[in-house]
Amino acid sequence: MTNHWIDLKNSDCILIMGSNAAENHPISFKYVTEAMLNGAKLISVDPRFTKTSSKADIYAALRSGTDIAFLGGMIKYVLDKELYNKEYTAAYTNASFIVGKDFSFKDGIFSGYTKGEKGHPSTGSYDKSKWAFEVDEKGVPKMDKTLQDPKCVFQLLKQHYDRYTLETVSLITGTSTEDLLKVYEAYSTTGATGKAGTIMYAMGWTQHTVGTQIIRTMSILQLLLGNMGVAGGGVNALRGESNVQGSTDHALLWHILPGYLKGIKASQDTLTAYNTKWTPKSSDPLSINWWQNYPKYSVSLLKSFFGEKATKENDFGYSWLPKADDNGSYSWSDIFDAMYKDKIKGFLAWGQNPACSGANSSKTRKALEKLDWMVNVNLFDNETGSFWHGPGVDPSKVKTEVFMLPAAVSVEKEGSIINSGRWMQWRYQGPKPMGDSRPDGDIIFELFHTIKELYHKDASNGKANKKDKKNKAKGGVFPEPILNLKWDYETSGVYDAHKVAKQINGYFIKDVTIKDKGYKAGTLVPNFTMLQDDGSTSSGCWIYCGSYTEEGNMSARRDTQDAPNNIGLYPKFAWAWPLNRRIIYNRASVNPKGEPWNKDKWVVKFAGEQKDGKWTTNKWEGDVPDGGAFPLENPDGTKRDDGKNPFIMQKDGYGQIYGPGLADGPFPEHYEPLECPVEKNYLSGQLVNPTAIVYSTDEDSHATCDPRFPFVGTTYRVCEHWQTGLMTRPQAWLMELQPQMFVEMSEELAALRGIKNGERVKVSSVRAAVECTAIVTKRFKPFKVGGGVVHQVGVPWHFGWRWPESRAEESANLLTSSAGDPNTRIPETKAFMVNVTKL
Amino acid sequence: MEKSFFIDTTICTGCRGCQVACKQWHDLPAESTKNLGTFQNPPDLSFVTYKLVRMKEEVIDNKLNWLFFPDQCRHCTDAPCLQVAENTKAIYRDADTGAIIYTIATKELDADAIIDSCPYNIPRKGEDGTISKCDMCNDRVHNGLKPACVTTCPTGTMNFGDRQEMLDMANKRLAEVKAKYPNAALLNPDDVNVIYLVAHDPKLYYEYSVASHSKVEKGISRKVALRKMMGPFASLMRA
């Protein structure tokens, strides 16, 4: 979330799309309800009328996977009716930038396209240099602040979405033009200065072959309407787990390092090459260009990994970090693809249940059979640990040796979680872990010590071992990363969460003087503006620098006093990254003179002294301001040389309406899901995302416009179950509420198939079939798409054969495909094709 | 002081936190259920289910509504079940809180008569003849806590406090809600300590959401009706 949970209450219009927050983020409705009691409008856009829709002022149904068409139509509406916030768009976004002559868009394809190689999951890619801005001699993008130049972003945007007429959008989405208009009208009122609209989205947006671009489309709208940086605005991702924000911040993903530093490619063979590649340069004096500090964060990270072993001479241990092949990909889907192809022999399934949670679970389950060993670290046994005696598996034919390590549950250990609003909150240990179960930290701790011991032993055995090919796998190869790893996080022989939290914050390693103030070696760094690229500081995740300082553990704070602006920031309750800033890009909540767009719900305001119409001292009030430089203009309207643009993480300091960095285009474009019910895309000749990731083993079949699978399927969650149900399916009170796998369908579809409410039916895709109880409901309606009727059904994904004991309730992910988004490789589990038949 | 609930169904999201919190506080077993083609489960109140979010899909003025009704005992100000029981060891009114409390001694009562007397179709009979229902979390209330269902509610649907405070809150909300839903109403606010606010015709939510006349006529015997007419003497007779 750019904003945070409590801030939802400040909104004038809340759009919930790609999320069913009332069901899946029930506490969020405390704040949604508060906003509504204060007069906010709630809009729910969903293929199915949900619990969220039941509370909404406006509900509109759309066919799964057509969100870009829906939102693209809103962009056109906002531009045609001139409802965008003109002052904000011109001042703070790249609407005025001139795009280079190499950019073009023809019939669904942008310039620079090359088709992918056969057998490679990437179906195609772009040469993004074709999308670059025109720059002046200093490298600063050329602009036309009047927004009239035919090659400026604003004009190109207009041109791009000109095709997204109400009629065309309706043909694609199945939403009536009347409902489209209702949503567009209501949401675009937030373009007025002082009004705020927010978006709450979740996996309903990310799990598509165009997932990233759906979110981009909304980001464009939020910039046009001036909704970024303001209270009650922003782009708000509701995370699918209480600590998913933490897991991405701390890089539990293959392609990044902690703090969103870039993963390392094989060709970046020195630290200098790596830092140069990822350190953007801007010569615009108005741009803070925050990422210019990149080397400070990467070097501090290396110092936290390798301590005193990381020296300037050895590139701070850079060469010890794992590197990805330049064209390699190692995401979730890629791991199981490789495992299925016999390329992976051992597997740690840690705190997850891939046999149910990942797309195309049949492939995953078969892949597990190819392993030599698997270690399942979890609270309970699950479908993953027990895959060898799952449905249709003959245990005598499975060679995989499975080990179960029982883990302690979150309340049994101390540590932090980071919520969707970027708040790091410290939690204390409740009960002690049961039986032999242990906290993850202790398991990792012991694992590492054992591995290190083996490397030591191997090293002491001498080099003979290395020549002995047979014993090579035992260890001794490339020992430096293991032997040099700093690992001083224990107290009395066990993992100490405080020591890890302090290392994440970071230490001064030498006595240093910064801006005339001295800091002693061994003390905690107060915040990331003090981090250095010379090895004098360490930080395990630069965005958390400031979370645990000499003043104490900031995330353990529980002061419930609000800030003076009284908008629910509660700055002394827990701690938010970055720098305890509660609303990101908050400098865009003020006009160029530093005055809030909304005087009542202001986030920051400039409170410096002035003389003769000029600011003379620098002071901001309210939230921690982005950057904290002077405003762009003086009170008398003259420009300041030392003012800074508000979007400080962007190289040029502007919000990106045109985004030349993504894999699939600088403007979002509607493409159909990989499996879809229509033969043509009404907007172009390109049916599906030309850069989608599609796997091609014999377990990766797909069916488009296939009469065997005529209905659109989607997956979702229910309030009563958690993820694959590992923690909730054994819980009788919750099973009482949601005991069985079900499929929801319209009365019309039920009639078509002769299905009665409550009877068991079969839902099948080209990949697998699952038995479900039919819920025949008015909450699903057939869609009028193109010239015909398209039916849609939905299934929850919380079930699996392990519980309940009937073994009859299976995972929805047996049905889904692992084809995914080219930017994130998240699979398209929200739109696929199925059939529904009576048993 | 007499306590009341105010249940604002207009902001209920049907999350059923209340339903689970009730089971947890009272340590009630789960029922073995099946999906019957609806999210509502268990299908009805039972001896071990005191609180149930009832769900209905209704098209009203061409607009689909998913109506949620967190059903529970109304703790009537003048409870027919208590009158029919004539046994304060089995059913009594806690003078401090106004909670209508059923004890183990309900086993000695004519359960069918008690159940029939309830205009809201609440009490349920166990295998051994004991009767059960919501007890207002009377133990919590006496210890300064709110009922478990109220504490867990994320949206403010479930409220609890002194009767007058709840009535004030209910009337204020009713006035606000009327602007959007002209048919909004409080259900039997003068007769019950669990005051519901609904946006639409109450019968659309649940057959027994408001006091059912047929139930009243059928359930309250002539004897009870006579007592009611006798007014003040009734309590003397009860004692």
Strand order of the largest sheet of chain A: 29-31-30-35-28-34
Oligomerization category of the chains in this entry: heterodimer
Instruction: Tally the beta strands of chain B.
Output: 10
**Unreliable stretches covering 5 or more consecutive residues of chain A:** none
Largest interface, C-beta closer than 8 angstroms, per-chain residues: A-B, 40 and 34 residues
Q: Quickly count the helices of chain A.
A: 22
Give the percentage of residues in beta strands of chain B. 15-25%
Order of helices and strands of chain B: EHEEHEEHEEHHEHEEHHHH
Enumerate the strands of the largest sheet of chain B in spatial order, edge to edge or round the barrel. 8-1-10-9
The end-to-end span of chain A amounts to 44 Å
| Helix run count of chain B | 10
Measured distance between first and last alpha carbons of chain B: 21 Å
Classify the helix fraction of chain B into a percent range: 25-40%
Q: Indicate the percent of residues in helices of chain A.
A: 10-25%
State Rg of chain A: 27 Å
Specify the biggest β-sheet of chain B: 4 strands, mixed
If you compute it from the alpha carbons, what radius of gyration of chain B comes out, rounded to the nearest whole angstrom? 18 Å
Strand content of chain A: 15-25%
Principal-axis shape of chain B equals globular
* Overall residue-averaged pLDDT value of chain B: 92
Verbal overview:
The complex is a heterodimer of chains A (839) and B (239). The mean pLDDT of chain A is 96. In chain A, the strands form 13 sheets. Chain A has a 6-stranded mixed beta sheet. A 5-stranded parallel beta sheet of chain A has the order 3-2-1-8-9. In chain A, strands 12-13-14 form a 3-stranded parallel beta sheet, with no helix packed on it. Chain A is of the alpha/beta class. Chain A is globular. Chain B is of the alpha+beta class. Chain B has 10 helices and 10 strands. In chain B, a hairpin with a 2-residue loop joins strand 2 and strand 3. In chain B, the strands form 4 sheets. Chain B has a 4-stranded mixed beta sheet with strand order 8-1-10-9. Helices cover 32% and strands 20% of the residues of chain B. Chain B is globular. Chains A and B meet through helix 2, helix 3, helix 21 and strand 31 of A and helix 1 and strand 3 of B.
